[in-house]
Every structure is written in C-alpha cells, then in structure tokens.
Amino acid sequence: MPRKRPVADSWLDATQTEDARQPAIQPIENALGVAMANYAQPFLNGHSCAYDANGDELLLAGTEEGLFVVSFDLEKLRRRRARTIYGNSFRRPHRYEALSDPAVAPPFLRNNGLGKPFDRLSR
Fold first, then answer.
1. Among 6, 33, 37, 92, which residue has the least CB neighbours within 10 Å?
2. What's the average pLDDT block by block, 10 residues per block, for the chain (123 residues)?
3. Cβ-proximal residues to 52 (8 Å cutoff; 6+ apart), any chain
C-alpha cells in the first residue's frame, strides 16, 4: 500500500506522495537519466516514467498501454555530473577494502551443490 504522506523537500512537489517521487532519487544520487517501464493495467499498474539527472520528471505515463519516447538532454547531464558530490571523487576505498577481499572466513564458508568447498573466484 503506497504511503500517502506528502514529502516536502526543495526538489519535491509536496502534493506528491513519497512513493510517487522515489524513482527520482536514483538519478540524483547517480547523476544519470533513468527510464523505467512497467506493464499496463490490469497486469500491473502502468506508470512508466523517466527522470533526468536532476530528478526532474520527463515522463509519467498513465495506467494504459502505450509507446512513450523521451529525450534526455546530454549537455544538462554532463553539467550535473561535473558539479555533483556523488561519483568517485570523494570515494575512500581504503575504508571498505574488507568488502572486496576475496577471502572467506568462518562462519561464512560454504559447500557447493556437490558438497565441495565453494570457490567464488572460479565463477
């Protein structure tokens, strides 16, 4: 059940619910354009959508089936990427080195379907 609580942020329209604007967050965080498709009613609820890198809605389709075309302004996307705090400029990989370490220690050692030790590096 969607939440009906309005969200009041500077970039959100306070008349929309939080769930209705949630897809706009991914483009803002990742500085990219996003287009999402969904099956029309009665299978699902439709509302395919597209957002630019600033989280501005470019398309919000209805519940009906259709073909929708959206153009992304690549210059606007490049400007957004040039000034965003997101991206890899402020990454600190030394802080999360353990997450990418290929070693597996107990209690996380596992066997594969054949009963042999699972070697995740051989996949």
1. 92
2. 42 50 76 89 88 90 92 92 78 83 86 89 76
3. 27, 33, 58, 72, 73, 76, 77
